[in-house]
């Protein structure tokens, strides 16, 4: 039986689906799912309301004075130039590396999959610390583009490689049999299937750039994020900081609007995995050496150089007896505990919105899903200060507790889990769900017995991505960590901010050691099982 796949024509409207999956369009979405998605949306929007409330309090005249300054124009230009340079660079590197690993005869592809994902194990601000400690000239726009591109290209490589690995060779053969050239088949068959992965990965990169602080502060490259932190240094009542944060929200909304048409609406799920033909690898021939050299340079710059520099500083710290083992273990325990809680909370919080959009697509579902991305574009310090304000006014018992920190992590990293759920649900055939329901299995039973086994790897992926992000989160943790609690990121920043590279090295090495095994697990879940 032929596989149901994305060879069907595109829907004519944003919410039309192929005939095989239209049956659920007449079923009302369960109120419990809608209520859970709304509750998550309220949690995400609450900091934004505080930000816009503070900005509105400044008044029209003061807002115009602050936003129309040459300094604001400079910050906007710097932010947009950074996004415009880094996003295409990460797409080129991520997709190019994914193609070489998954679609060619590149030697040892499994090793390269792991190495190409390893930048996720090295926080971007740790990479900045490593490069600037030996090469102080890495500064300004060029330094920021260099570091963030190397740090963020895995966000594109990961989904692109997963979908390329799952590509059905039969579609390419069909296109070639109809007279399409190799390039035409690539553009008309492969690229449309890659659009969700490329668009989703590029969106994550852009959102990270809008909220990035540590790298840009070390690179001495001012953007909205660094300026916001400076403005909020004198208190959250500062109108300038809130106005700059409001501009960041508008930039995020523009990115979200642009991502919707870019990702497309073409169906990628198949029914019957046994009918899929594994893709045929393209022979590199004499191009094997240049391909290996290019990947080696990429991995060397993104992984090897920072890791070697951190190890050198760690070796010096050990030699000078500068390692405070008790503080290091305490910071590691705090980081792991908060990351576990944040990973579970965020993965569960992302499910209702992703499920609603997958099974009951509507403008409401799309809006709730889009809302989850908005607050993640704000710097952690803005989210942290907003939650402090809300907790002091309305929920004082949670102030300075782990619950408030986990709420901030959930708001900041919800897009990572949302993208993971979306990817898994998109590849789960709707026909199996309808078949289960037609046999009398209720909704929760169908989800547990049919959907969950199919999407569990994606759910685990989202959990790992949130865990990794929480371990290395800095600004929100500085504000919201319970009293007396120090994480690896905050301990590292305290030392590195004073240019004490020796004292910083143990915490940097611990973050890398903690993240590396999870990065390998991430590769196994997403790539090896496709």
Describe the protein's architecture and organization.
By secondary structure, this protein is mostly helical. About 75% of the residues lie in helices and about 0% in strands. It has 22 helices and no strands. The chain has helices spanning about 30-55, 60-65, 70-105, 110-115, 125-135, 140-150, 155-165, 170-175, 180-210, 215-220, 225-230, 240-265, 290-320, 325-360, 365-375, 380-395, 400-425, 430-440, 445-470, 475-480, 490-495, 500-530. The radius of gyration is 23 Å and the shape is globular. It starts with about 30 loop residues before the first helix and ends with a helix.
Multimerization state = single chain
The average pLDDT value, as a whole number, equals 79
Order of helices and strands: HHHHHHHHHHHHHHHHHHHHHH
Q: Uncertain runs with pLDDT below 50, 5 residues or more?
A: 1-26
How large is the radius of gyration?
A: 23 Å
Shape: globular
SSE topology sketch:
Elements: H1 31-57, H2 60-67, H3 70-103, H4 109-117, H5 124-134, H6 140-152, H7 154-165, H8 169-177, H9 182-211, H10 214-218, H11 224-232, H12 239-263, H13 288-319, H14 325-359, H15 363-374, H16 380-394, H17 402-426, H18 430-438, H19 443-471, H20 475-480, H21 488-496, H22 501-528
Helix pairs in contact: 1-12, 1-14, 1-15, 1-16, 3-4, 3-6, 3-7, 3-9, 4-22, 5-13, 7-9, 8-9, 9-12, 9-17, 11-12, 13-22, 14-15, 14-17, 14-19, 16-17, 17-19, 18-19, 19-22, 21-22
């Amino acid at each position: 039986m032929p596989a149901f796949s994305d060879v069907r024509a595109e829907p004519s409207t944003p919410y039309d689906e192929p005939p095989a999956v239209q049956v659920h369009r007449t079923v009302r979405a369960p109120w419990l799912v809608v209520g859970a998605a709304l509750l998550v949306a309220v949690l995400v929007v609450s900091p934004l309301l505080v930000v816009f409330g503070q900005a509105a309090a400044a008044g029209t005249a003061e807002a115009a004075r602050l936003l129309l300054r040459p300094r604001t124009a400079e910050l906007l230009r710097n932010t947009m130039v950074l996004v415009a340079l880094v996003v295409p660079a990460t797409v080129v590197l991520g997709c190019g590396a994914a193609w070489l690993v998954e679609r060619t005869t590149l030697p040892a592809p499994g090793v390269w999959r792991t190495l190409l994902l390893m930048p996720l194990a090295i926080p971007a601000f740790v990479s900045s610390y490593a490069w600037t400690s030996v090469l102080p000239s890495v500064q300004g726009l060029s330094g920021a583009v260099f570091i963030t591109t190397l740090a963020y290209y895995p966000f594109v490589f990961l989904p692109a490689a997963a979908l390329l690995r799952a590509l059905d060779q039969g579609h390419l053969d069909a296109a070639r049999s109809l007279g399409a050239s190799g390039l035409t088949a690539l553009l008309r068959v492969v690229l449309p299937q890659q659009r969700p992965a490329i668009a989703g990965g590029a969106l994550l990169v852009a959102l990270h750039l809008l909220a990035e602080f540590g790298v840009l502060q070390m690179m001495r490259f001012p953007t909205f994020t660094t300026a916001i932190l400076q403005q909020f240094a004198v208190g959250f009542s500062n109108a300038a900081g809130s106005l700059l944060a409001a501009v960041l929200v508008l930039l995020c909304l523009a990115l979200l609007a642009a991502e919707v048409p870019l990702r497309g609406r073409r169906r990628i799920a198949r029914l019957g995995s046994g009918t899929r033909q594994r893709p045929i690898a393209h022979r590199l021939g004499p191009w094997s050496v240049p391909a290996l050299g290019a990947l080696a340079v990429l991995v060397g710059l993104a992984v090897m150089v920072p890791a070697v520099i951190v190890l050198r500083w760690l070796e010096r710290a050990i030699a000078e007896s500068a390692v405070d083992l008790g503080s290091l273990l305490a910071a590691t325990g705090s980081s792991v505990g908060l990351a576990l809680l944040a990973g579970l909370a965020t993965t569960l919080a992302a499910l209702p919105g992703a499920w609603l959009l997958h099974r009951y697509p509507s403008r409401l579902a799309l809006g709730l899903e889009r809302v989850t991305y908005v607050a993640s574009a704000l710097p952690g310090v803005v989210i942290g200060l907003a939650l402090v304000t809300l907790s002091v006014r309305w929920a004082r018992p949670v102030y300075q507790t782990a619950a408030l920190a986990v709420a901030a992590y959930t708001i900041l990293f919800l897009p990572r889990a949302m993208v993971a759920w979306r990817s898994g649900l998109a590849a789960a055939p709707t026909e199996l769900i309808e078949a289960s329901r037609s046999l009398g299995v209720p909704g929760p039973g169908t989800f547990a017995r049919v959907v969950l086994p199919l999407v569990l790897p994606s759910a685990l992926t989202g959990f790992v991505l949130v865990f990794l992000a929480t371990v290395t989160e800095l600004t929100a943790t500085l504000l919201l960590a319970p009293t007396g609690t120090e994480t690896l990121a905050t301990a590292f920043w305290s030392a590195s901010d004073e240019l004490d590279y020796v004292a910083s090295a143990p915490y940097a090495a611990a973050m890398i050691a903690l993240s590396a095994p999870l990065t390998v697990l991430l590769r196994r879940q997403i790539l090896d099982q496709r």
